[in-house]
């Protein structure tokens, strides 16, 4: 009798439930969307290698080229009192076409949700957040229409009692749809940036609400995709050169506003997933985003000069910066830095162990 011939290992990536039902599986981990919706066990013969890739090397190459121009900041004449110890690499690595599933502790998730949920309230008070700066507008008293309208909603939301916030939900949903429509019809990048920032604030009030507005407390893949596309659209359409009429500080604020808005868009997507599913799906593309380590300039003197002809040593990738934070190479971590550390590394500022200060340099 012939011996049994061993069966070759299967290369199937779909979960067993989707395979049995002959349904398409999105291969999300630890449970695919179909199994999560049906509330059934989700088992894989092989752990998924990728989860819904949204990037490609061709796009990444074009993006990296843009980074080296408009999105690259310069060193200032006046240096804020922050101290760093690091070796920079000027080239930002190309993103890989895959996504990584990450889970964080409940305390980190609560911190991230609380931090980003506070954006609308902070904006309602002074029209400024970690990614929106009023000095960027020619007239602080006359911001772009999208910013002005969402500011009104933020004030209404922040002054409403918890049990009445649900009444604002239809207004936020309507405004979000209107802003999405406007995004496809903007005539210049400044309007695109302002509309994106307004939409992110509206989404902070909608998807991070601590109430249950009209059944929004179920995870929406379309919302996640929309947030991803916001960052991609800004990144791809960022201008290579800025108008010569901008002052050095406004030119820096413009580039920094673009960078921070993109980062916050991807962070909000991650926090939304963490809040709703207790895990987040992040792409290495996010780690490749450029970041200016001089976070003190954002809240610095409005009359402070920025040397646009100086060195660009302050530019690193977001992955490098979060690694510097985690290893204790940054003293005086800003509030924004704390959110980045939690979102990228799942760590709290209080848990950072600082090495000896010998060799630290100030920026």
UniProtKB/TrEMBL annotation:
SUPFAM superfamilies assigned to the protein according to its UniProt record, in alphabetical order: Zn2/Cys6 DNA-binding domain (SSF57701)
A GO term for molecular function: DNA binding
GO biological process: positive regulation of metabolic process
Domain Zn(2)-C6 fungal-type positions: 14-44
This protein's record includes keyword Lyase: no
InterPro entries registered for this protein in UniProt: Zn2-C6_fun-type_DNA-bd_sf, Zn2Cys6_DnaBD
Protein's UniProt keywords contain rRNA-binding: no
Cross-referenced CDD domains: GAL4 (cd00067)
One Pfam assignment: Zn_clus
The entry's keywords: DNA-binding, Nucleus, Transcription, Transcription regulation
Protein name per Swiss-Prot or TrEMBL: Zn(2)-C6 fungal-type domain-containing protein
Organism the protein comes from: Aspergillus brasiliensis (strain CBS 101740 / IMI 381727 / IBT 21946)
Organism classification: Eukaryota, Fungi, Dikarya, Ascomycota, Pezizomycotina
